[in-house]
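Project outcomes to date are best conveyed with an example. Our students and postdoctoral researchers have been running inverse folding experiments weekly, and each run begins with a structure described purely in C-alpha cells. The record below, which covers 131 residues, was selected by the lab manager from last quarter's runs and is presented without edits.
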C-alpha cells in the first residue's frame, strides 16, 4: 500500500513539474518541430471551459485522454488490469493514431504543428557557432 502512494506522489510531482517547468512543447523549444501531442494542453484547457470547438482545433484527439487517464487510474489502484498483450496493442493503436493525425495536420497546414526552426534552441546554437 505504501508503495502505491509513493508511485502516486511521484506521478503527481512529475505532472506538476511538467506543467510548471515545461509549459511549452520541449520538441518545439529544442528543435523547432512540433510533436504529435502539440496543442493537447491547450485543447484540454479549452474543454475545461466548455469551448469544445477551440479544443478540437487545438488537438482533435483530446477526448481520448479521458479514457486513457481513467484506465491508468484504475490500473494503479488495482481495480482494472488488462493483459500485457492487450495493453501493448492499445498503446500502439493510440500512438499510431496520434502519428496519423499529426501527419494529416502537417499536410493540411495546421498552424499549431507547423515547424519554426528559427525560434528553436538548435537554431540559436547553430547561429552562435557560425559567428
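After processing, the design step wrote out the following sequence:
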Amino acid at each position: 500500500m505504501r508503495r502505491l502512494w509513493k508511485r502516486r506522489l511521484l506521478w503527481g510531482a512529475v505532472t506538476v513539474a511538467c506543467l510548471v517547468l515545461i509549459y511549452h512543447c520541449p520538441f518545439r523549444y529544442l528543435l523547432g518541430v512540433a510533436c504529435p501531442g502539440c496543442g493537447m494542453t491547450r485543447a484540454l484547457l479549452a474543454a475545461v471551459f466548455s469551448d469544445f470547438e477551440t479544443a478540437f482545433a487545438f488537438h482533435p484527439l483530446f477526448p481520448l485522454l479521458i479514457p486513457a487517464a481513467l484506465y491508468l487510474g484504475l490500473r494503479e489502484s488495482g481495480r482494472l488490469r488488462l493483459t500485457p498483450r492487450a495493453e501493448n496493442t492499445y498503446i500502439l493503436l493510440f500512438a499510431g493514431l496520434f502519428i496519423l493525425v499529426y501527419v494529416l495536420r502537417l499536410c493540411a497546414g495546421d498552424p499549431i504543428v507547423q515547424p519554426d526552426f528559427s525560434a528553436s534552441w538548435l537554431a540559436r546554437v547553430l547561429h552562435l557557432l557560425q559567428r
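The chain has a mean pLDDT of 85. Residues 84-108 form the longest helix (25 residues). The training component of this project remains on track.
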